Amino acid sequence: MTGPPEPHPALSLDETTHQRVRLAILAVLSETAECSFAALRDQLGLTDGNLSRHLRVLEEAGLVGQRKTFEARRPRTWLTLTRAGRKALRVQLENMEKLVTKLRSYTEDE
Asked: Tell me: the pLDDT tens digits for 37-85?
């Protein structure tokens, strides 16, 4: 007798990290120790409001941290990927790899 089938790998994708813009934010932040809000916004081609909204979700999940400074009397926001954020990105990539492997097994026969 066999047990229940293993869940499809697509079901293991995390809704917080899998969203396209949030995944891009995590990816960019993983490439550097710290990134300014403006640099991240420009690299991803987002508006201030759109980036802020996604950062809020990631911060509430504990995946992104920020610190505020003043440079030449102007506020500047610096963003970092937290330890939990690095782990979440790694897990998400592993889950995506499992999904790709499964899908390739069906398309290689074509």
From this structure: 999 999 999 999 999 999 999 999 999 999 999 988 899 999 999 999 9
Whether the predicted pLDDT of 110 surpasses 60: no
Q: Quick count: other Cβ atoms within 10 Å of Cβ 26?
A: 22
- CA Rg, the chain, in Å? 18
Cα of 70 vs its chain's centroid, Å: 27
Residue 26 near residue 17, CB atoms below 8 Å: yes
Report the SS3 class of residue 96.
helix
46: its two tokens: 């987002």
Beta pairing partners, 36: 78
**Quick check: 9 and 99 in contact, CB under 8 A?**
yes
